[in-house]
Amino acid sequence: MNKLFLSALLFCFGLNQIVAQTTAEKLYQPAVLIELFSSEGCGSCPYAGAFLKEVIQISDSSKSPVYVLDYHVVIWNRSGWVDPFSDSAYSLRQQEYVYRKNLKALYTPMVFINGADKDYAGGDKRGIGMGIQSALSKPSKHYLRSKVTGIANEDSLLIAYQAWGNLDSMQLMVAFVQKEINSQVKAGENAGLVLHHQNVVRGIYTKQIKGEEGMFKIPVNQELNLENFRLVLFLQHKRTWDIVAADQLNFKF
């Protein structure tokens, strides 16, 4: 990433301190959720993954509310290499975006920012950077905070959430994410490469909101090293699929 673009991202991430109050309604600090749809069988996906790795590093180091999810889809699995992290559920999610947003094409690497109507090519640094800046510059009508704990003798995690704003027609989505994966690809367009993935979605769950706060469980293997995992939670409108708030949880021991 060139220095000019890096400076632009750092500047726009600095906007995360916006918290405003109006006479009509309370506005909150905005959050940004970047959803990447990719595949190990896609020749242009490693470039997109490397770019979003830099976004993650900037966000993590500055503690900014910019979160990234990398869904590995199955569309390339018949092209010489089966992506071991792919899932048809993620392909269905991408297809649903294309349908709900009335888009003309489905492709990889494909990016959505806060579930908005516009899609981005995964390597479109300028476009994605401007999309992040735009999202961070607009105080939100919604806010989300969460906590997590393990449950003794259970392969599950207990998550507590608190949400602010109008929750009508909202659903809570929870992504179980692996922070880093190194994968050697032996066939297909990326044959011979060792790919370095970040924030790979390993499971996604839909939870119905019954109020401004609540608790629920998700299944997680207790034998996993949770230090290499995180949770990303977000509020998504059931009809429009717009994402109005997000939060991220890291495991600390």
Q: Helicity level, as a percent range?
A: 10-25%
> What is the H-and-E element order?
HEHEHEEHEEEEEEE
If you compute it from the alpha carbons, what radius of gyration comes out, rounded to the nearest whole angstrom? Answer: 18 Å
Q: Structural class, judged by helices and strands?
A: alpha+beta
CATH-level-2 architecture: Sandwich
Kindly state the number of beta strands.
Answer: 11
User: In the CATH hierarchy, what is the superfamily?
Assistant: Immunoglobulins
Q: What's the CATH class, please?
A: Mainly Beta
Q: Overall mean pLDDT score?
A: 90
Distance between the termini: 33 Å
| Biggest β-sheet: strands ordered side by side in the sheet | 2-1-3-4
Total helical elements: 4
Domain count? 1
How much beta, percentage-wise?
35-45%
Biggest sheet overview: 4 strands, mixed
Spans of at least 5 consecutive residues with low confidence: 1-8, 10-23
Quaternary structure of the protein: single chain
- Form type: globular
Provide tags for this entry.
single chain, 253 residues, Immunoglobulin-like, 4-stranded mixed β-sheet, 4-stranded antiparallel β-sheet
Explain this structure to me?
- By secondary structure, the chain is α+β, with helices and mostly antiparallel strands.
- It has one domain: Sandwich (Immunoglobulin-like), CATH 2.60.40.
- Helices cover 21% and strands 36% of the residues.
- The protein has a four-stranded mixed β-sheet with strand order 2-1-3-4, sandwiched between helices. Strands 8-7-10-11 form a four-stranded antiparallel β-sheet, covered by helices on one side. A three-stranded antiparallel β-sheet has the order 5-6-9, with no helix packed on it.
- Helix 1 runs parallel beside helix 4 (125-136).
- It is globular.
- The model is unreliable at 1-8 and 10-23 (pLDDT under 50).
